[in-house]
Write a structure and sequence with these properties.
By secondary structure, the protein is an alpha/beta fold. It has a domain at 402-497: ANL, C-terminal domain (GMP Synthetase, Chain A, domain 3). It is built from 15 helices and 24 strands. The protein has helices spanning 4-10, 31-47, 64-76, 89-99, 111-120, 135-141, 177-190, 208-221, 233-239, 250-257, 282-292, 365-371, 411-419, 455-465, 491-497, and strands at 19-23, 28-30, 55-59, 79-82, 103-106, 124-127, 157-163, 171-176, 198-201, 224-227, 245-248, 272-275, 297-302, 306-310, 324-325, 330-334, 348-353, 378-386, 392-397, 402-404, 407-409, 424-434, 438-447, 474-478. It has a nine-stranded mixed β-sheet. It has a four-stranded parallel β-sheet with strand order 4-3-5-6, sandwiched between helices. It has a four-stranded antiparallel β-sheet with strand order 16-17-18-19, with no helix packed on it. α10 links the parallel β11 and β12. α2 crosses α3 (64-76), α2 packs across α6 and α4 (89-99) packs parallel to α5. The N and C termini lie far apart (59 Å). The chain binds malonyl-coenzyme A and adenosine monophosphate. Residues 163, 208, 276-279, 298, 300-303, 322, 380, 382, 394, 397, 403, 408 line the site of adenosine monophosphate.
């Protein structure tokens, strides 16, 4: 018995005096100091009564303390459940209850709103603020700076990440030590990360991209990160000259390109820019190369699978494609309706198999069976096509999903809130192009025959229930939704009709 993540990604650097984190205020944190902090959190979560396999949910800002808490959970065998800081108490309530988390950690400003939820779910509520204050870090400081490493099987869970679903009900993706470690090792090799790398880290750490890909690839190499609390152009421009690599969603790249300070000179020290989580326009790829001389490396992944494909490091990085399957990852393309294998060149659903693929959905065996085949292939729901050289291109989505600035929004979840409001007969929520976020949310509402729809009331209901990034940026009230001859709402017609709402 061992603890795969600890043994592979943490143990080698425990005593290292190399810098792990460069912070926005100029402070640096060395590996040895950081892992002392990790051990204190490992001792604390054990003292709080969490046993191996128990869940700790955290809705907290991004800070070195949050990262130390996460790795402390790994060391203590506890399953980490990170939550988007934008989630409303109503959303958090579902996650805490569904996961059975025994501890909920939040910012002090959210304590009052979350207390009734913690009480109802029988979870202890602790605080951790972005500046490192709060009841959790205060108690951690009283702990010893070394801790036992709790043994876990490679298939035991390390993290539980909730992802929304087409039915509107979120599903907890169970990620094991094997899933996360195998992906980190493969990506480190493929993208040639080394201990002298300094990764610009401006992503949130409650999702796969920032928490696993960015952080674990850095740990696999023993490198450093410029660890910014969030995307911030000023800070990025001032730290870029010391960075060697960056990972971001496409919005990061379009925002950088919109800033005249972002020049080839600023990126002189960089060796690699990576993009993922949403489609990168070929146009952005081209503009980026014109401005900096760098070709962005685009890769593709999912919460359930971690990373599955990547453009090559050394070979041609082909714009508009997500490259080839990663070493150790098998892919196949199947017909959406029948699941039958399709010949190369045809458009179908991408399926993925390998150590990267998750264990299934928490407490949802039926959902798991629907999406994870018995033979180990996971049905991603992304529509893809392979070109003649084997590059995979994402051509659409078989699932009703909007990706805004790298955040996923399932229309069903928004429609359910709107449908409950007075005067609303039915709604169709669609994604339309947006210059900053790639896509954004439009709600098309059909009213009941004699009612008037009160838009202010609608917006209030949305605000009470849903995180800000899911809110429609435009509401359109019409008499009836367009339907095809089968009676199915034609979302494509709506997407087409409103496609220029936000574009000049
Ligand atoms: C913030 N807002 C958003 C938003 N982010 N609205 C829609 N979509 C988003 N992504 C809201 C804010 O609440 C604010 O509301 C308003 O929009 C403008 O905010 P901003 O200041 O412009 O946004 P900012 O804070 O700068 O955030 C934008 C962003 C951020 C793109 C930097 O969203 C981000 O870091 N995205 C990365 C998401 C990510 O890591 N995804 C990976 C998922 S893992 P108001 O009205 O209050 O002003 C995955 C697997 C894989 O997908 O393959 O990687
Ligand atoms: P999530 O559920 O948040 O992990 O989001 C996963 C989804 O993001 C995938 O199913 C894809 O639809 C999308 N995605 C991730 N990377 C890319 C990419 N490089 N290009 C297009 N879509 C992507």
């Amino acid at each position: 018995m061992a603890n795969l993540i600890f043994d592979t990604l943490m143990r080698p650097w425990r005593k290292s005096e190399n810098v792990f984190l460069y912070l926005q205020d100029g402070e640096t944190i060395r590996y040895s100091t950081f892992f002392g902090r990790v051990a204190r959190y490992a001792n604390l979560v054990t003292e709080l009564g969490l046993e191996p396999g128990d869940r700790l949910a955290a809705q907290v800002g991004k800070s070195p303390e949050t990262l130390a808490l996460y790795l402390g959970c790994i060391q203590a065998g506890v399953v980490f459940l990170p939550l988007n800081t934008a989630y409303t108490p109503a959303e958090v309530s579902y996650f805490v209850e569904d996961s059975g988390a025994r501890v909920l950690v939040c910012d002090t400003t959210c304590q009052k709103g979350l207390m009734p939820i913690a009480q109802a779910c029988n979870a202890q509520l602790m605080t951790l603020n972005e500046d490192g204050s709060g009841s959790l870090p205060a108690q951690a400081s009283l702990q010893r700076a070394d801790a036992p490493v709790v043994a876990r099987n490679d298939d035991d869970l390390a993290a539980l990440l909730y992802t929304s679903g087409t039915t509107g009900r979120s599903k907890g993706a169970m990620l094991s030590h094997r899933n996360l470690t195998s992906n980190a090792r493969v990506l480190k090799e493929l993208w040639q990360f080394e201990d002298r790398d300094v990764l610009m880290h401006a992503l949130p750490i409650y999702h796969t991209h920032g928490l696993f890909v960015a952080t674990f690839v850095t740990l696999a190499a023993g490198g450093s990160m410029v660890f910014l609390p969030k995307f911030n152009l000023d800070a990025m421009c001032s730290f870029l000259p010391q960075a060697t690599s960056m990972m971001g969603v496409p919005t990061f790249y379009t925002r950088l390109l919109d800033d005249p300070r972002f020049t080839a000179d600023l990126t002189k020290n960089m060796r690699l820019f990576i993009s993922g989580s949403a489609p990168l326009l070929a146009e952005t790829h081209r503009q980026f190369e014109d401005r900096t001389g760098h070709r962005i490396l685009e890769r593709y992944g999912m919460t359930e699978t971690n990373m599955s494909t990547s453009n090559p490091y050394d070979g041609e990085r082909r714009a508009g494609t997500v490259g080839f399957p990663l070493p150790g990852v098998e892919t196949r393309i199947t017909a959406p309706e029948t699941g039958e294998l399709l010949p190369d060149g045809e458009i179908g659903v991408l399926e993925v198999r390998g150590d990267n693929v998750f264990n299934g959905y928490w407490n949802m065996p039926e959902k798991t069976r629907e999406e994870l085949r018995e033979n180990g292939f996971f049905i991603t729901g992304d529509l893809v096509q392979k070109d003649e050289d084997g590059y995979i291109q994402i051509v659409g989505r078989g699932k009703d999903l909007i990706i805004s600035g790298g955040f996923n929004i399932y229309p069903k979840e928004v429609e359910q809130v709107l449908d409950d409001q007075p005067g609303v007969l039915e709604t169709a929520v669609v994604g339309v192009p947006h210059p900053d976020f790639g896509e954004t949310v439009v709600a098309v509402i059909a009213r009941t025959s004699d009612d008037v729809v009160d838009l202010e009331q609608l917006k209030e209901a949305v605000t009470a229930k849903l995180a800000k990034f899911k809110h429609p940026r435009k509401y359109v009230v019409i008499d009836a939704l367009p339907r095809n001859t089968m009676g199915k709402v034609q979302k494509n017609a709506l997407r087409d009709e409103y496609k220029n709402l936000f574009m000049q």
